[in-house]
Structure to design on (263 residues):
């Protein structure tokens, strides 16, 4: 009875996995992107879809992601999945759904960015609830994604984990002023988690690299001085990603010139 039950469970798992992968073309490079509904994440989906690669686009609210849905209609190999990266059970469920599917590039982009009211306030204005949320989403969630999808990445051809970080989390290159306490600390924690994980990834043949996307205009109707558009940032980051080798494992690289950014 136990053997029959185990076989049935395995069969149901395989059916669910195959159903999840139904939109993915066999034999093509597969990229899983978090935070794929807007800004940099959406632009990654757009440009990678043009390469005719498979894309698993993970978003919190698929129904509200109109632009992403339009891309998926135009490119059948783009599959949209609902995922709140702060829900670790949901991450585990998504990984189980795609068990057996090789993920060539795990592209961890989802983040809480400093667009909240306290971001530019000094110590007296620090929002500790936002700090906790930022730590959970910006630092812990990428580590959990790595844990959940590591075997899928290791089973692929490219074997790459690419994490979008920020110079804001760098002690060397971050702003030299009291601002973005919540965001900068969360990105510094992210960097340390990934730096530490990079001592482990070579054992699986996986290359883990962090990227700075530059200062990017991601808010509609608002232009930041000296900022670039998402299409330029992503295009240049993809050039860096295309050039990655195992020697880039554990490095934090600039989007434009591939310069290694100090921690």
């Amino acid at each position: 009875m136990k053997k029959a039950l185990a076989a049935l469970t395995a069969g149901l798992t395989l059916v669910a996995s195959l159903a999840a992968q139904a939109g993915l073309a066999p034999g093509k490079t597969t990229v899983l992107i978090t935070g794929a509904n807007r800004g940099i994440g959406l632009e990654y989906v757009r440009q990678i879809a043009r390469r005719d690669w498979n894309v698993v686009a993970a978003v919190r609210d698929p129904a509200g992601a109109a632009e992403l849905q339009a891309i998926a209609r135009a490119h059948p190999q783009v599959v949209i999945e609902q995922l709140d990266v702060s829900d670790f059970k949901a991450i585990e469920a998504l990984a189980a759904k795609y068990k057996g599917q090789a993920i060539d590039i795990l592209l961890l982009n989802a983040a809480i960015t400093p667009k909240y009211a306290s971001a530019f306030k000094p110590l007296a204005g620090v929002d500790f609830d936002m700090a906790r949320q930022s730590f959970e989403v910006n630092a812990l969630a990428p580590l959990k994604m790595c844990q959940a999808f590591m075997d899928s990445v290791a089973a692929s051809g490219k074997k790459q984990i690419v994490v979008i970080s920020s110079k804001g989390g760098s002690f060397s290159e971050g702003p030299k002023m009291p601002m973005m306490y919540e965001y900068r600390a969360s990105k510094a924690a992210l960097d340390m988690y990934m730096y530490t994980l990079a001592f482990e990834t070579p054992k699986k043949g996986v290359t883990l690299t962090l990227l700075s996307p530059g200062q990017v205009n991601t808010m509609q109707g608002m232009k930041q001085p000296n900022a670039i558009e998402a299409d330029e940032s992503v295009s240049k980051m993809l050039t860096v990603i295309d050039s990655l080798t195992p020697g880039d494992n554990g490095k934090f690289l600039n989007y434009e010139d591939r310069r290694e950014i100090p921690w």
